[in-house]
Amino acid sequence: MLGVNVKTNNYNKPWLDNAIKRNDIIKIATEPTYNNLYRINNITGENELSGFGREFEYLRSYGYTYDPVTKSMIK
């Protein structure tokens, strides 16, 4: 699962699951860097995946990789 974020689970995950099933190329507007894949949890002070980071890792778990030339996640 992508995490506890309701928006991610209700909207983004089903969209990603459908794209994965079709082996879609997924364009992303944000370059995946450490600073936008992770964030500091204000309660625990621990580093954790951001919403974007969870989606990025979810795609990677299904065999997608980031192509910096096309700014796309491809299988």
TrEMBL record:
Highest taxon listed in the record's lineage: Bacteria
Designated name of the protein: Uncharacterized protein
